[in-house]
Amino acid sequence: MTGRFRDSRRRFLRLLILAGGGTLALSPRTRADDSDKMSKTQAEYQDSPKDIQMCATCTLFVAPHACKVVEGKISPDGWCKAYAMAD
Length: 87
What we know:
mainly alpha
């Protein structure tokens, strides 16, 4: 490869990466809204724990009453099939 072609390619790739990052940075959506989430029925959500598993110990729980993947108000004592135990 000639030096000139290599420099052009690097410049192009740099611009491509910057353009992609700029698009993400300008996006008005910074978090998932309820339309991107499962309904409580789809998640098989229940307001009570399942054995020792409960929303309060799930990595997807957002205190005080939300979830990253299930729409609506979530009880810290609830449970659903998306449960993922926090480390």
